[in-house]
Amino acid sequence: MAGISTKIANDEDDALLKKWENTDLWPSTREEATSTAGSSEKQPKIYSNFCPEVTGDIFGLYASSLCRYSDEIDRDNAHLTIEREGDSTRNNWRWEWANVSEMHYRECAIYSQLSASLANQKTKQEHHIVENNPSQASKKEIITAKPGMFGVSIDLKELLNRALRWWYHRNEK
Q1: Which one of 76, 104, 132 terminates a domain?
Q2: pLDDT tens track for 30-48
Q3: N or C: which end of the chain has fewer CB within 10 A?
Q4: How far apart are CA 78 and CA 80, in angstroms?
Q5: Is 99 inside a domain boundary?
Q6: pLDDT (tens digit per residue) in 110-162
Q7: 20 contacts 13 by C-beta, under 8 angstroms
Q8: HEC profile for the chain?
Q9: Same structural domain for residues 164 and 96?
């Protein structure tokens, strides 16, 4: 990533590109694509449309886009403001960044598609198991009585899995 992370070997990069560019997950327009911009290739000023897990690993901030200060004057003025506000802790992202578009990975459009795809694959595998052994379909409890705030808990994951199994089975016919 723009000289701040380990470069992927060219053959692996080509294989990954070939795999992903033919999927619905590949950006349709250049505006949707992950990119960097700025005057220096070694340290770009703008990182756009990144996976929040990647920016979290590299910068310690879960964000889709990050923009550095345009110059020293803007950075110095921002630093004065930070100190004046009394929030001069080292954890304040404004020391390095002029703007950060925070994003949790669950809000990421690509993550949600991958998550649904993985759930669908799992459902297909479970459907195959259930087809061969129908007694497995209803073994897991969805609603259980447990000590807690309301005394009842709902296994949303199992509920979703059953709904996906039902949907998959219905559409298979």
Answers
A1: 104
A2: 887 888 888 766 778 999 8
A3: C
A4: 5
A5: yes
A6: 666 665 555 555 555 555 555 555 555 555 666 555 555 555 566 677 777 78
A7: no
A8: CCCCCCCCCHHHHHHHHHHHCCCCCCCCCCCCCCEEECCCCCCCCEEECCCHHHHHHHHCCCEEEEEECCCHHHHHHHHHHHHHHCCCCCCCHHHCEEEEEECCHHHCHHHHHHHHHHHHHHHHHHHHHHHHCHHHCCCCCCEEECCCCCCEEECHHHHHHHHHHHHHHHHHC
A9: no
Residue type, 43: Q
**What's the one-letter identity of residue 97?**
W
Give just the sign of the alpha carbon dihedral 83, 86, 89, 93.
negative
Instruction: Name the domain count of the chain.
Output: 2
